[in-house]
Amino acid sequence: MRKITLLTLTLFFSAWAHATTIDFNVAAFEGYQNVDTNDYFSISEITVTEIETLDSYDDKDIAGDIGSVITIVDKLIALGQKVWPIIKAGKPVINNGMNNFKPIYVLPEVAGQDAAFTFYSMSDWDMPVSKSYRVSYKNGFGAEVIGFNYTVLGQGGGKYEGKGSYVGNVQVVASNISVAWGFEFSADVSFVNAMNLGSVDSPVAGAMLKIDYKAKSLFKEIESSEIFTINGHGVIQKN
User: Fold this and answer.
1) Rounded distance between C-alpha atoms, residue 144 and residue 43, angstroms
2) What is the pLDDT of residues 30-64, one digit of tens each?
3) Which of 52, 78, 87, 197 is most solvent-facing, going by the fewest CB within 10 Å?
């Protein structure tokens, strides 16, 4: 097991403090003669907490920029992007309006009709809804070494020929990312499935998403995931 002195640790963290936005309180180690580097590079706790949505994101109404077909199930057609990154190398990936990113839509499947035509025939979309969460990784010293916010958003209420409640503009964005020296972090979002949460005559569309994130240090790699469903009533649920 490797040991380093308090003086060495103080000089070490002072050097990298100028190159990162993470504050590391060396004073927290006062009274220690030796510090175990395993404590710094270990992950002792991961928490996911719902927070007030204060992040900046594109919350405008349905934009009408639908993508290609992902799946067809239960007379529903899902369109958009199957997988997309939200964090790469500790930095947010801005998908809105860039890289031809397409959010998720779950619409009625109409036989012999193009999905885009169906979409433009729909009405009564609700205003956007969202939920935000803070993910925090703490090391053996109890200090946060990785932290980020993610926001799940979308719109429900869309009707076709006056029926149903469908889902559109579903996406996940990341913000307020902090990654300490010696750690790597990335996160991706994937579309899991579309479902009818209502009846055949009055469908309530649902879209299930999975958020996968990976933390890596010199000693260990940890993978975690969260599952969300957003339905045509505009309800976002963490499963």
Assistant:
1) 9
2) 433 444 567 888 888 999 999 988 655 555 556 55
3) 52
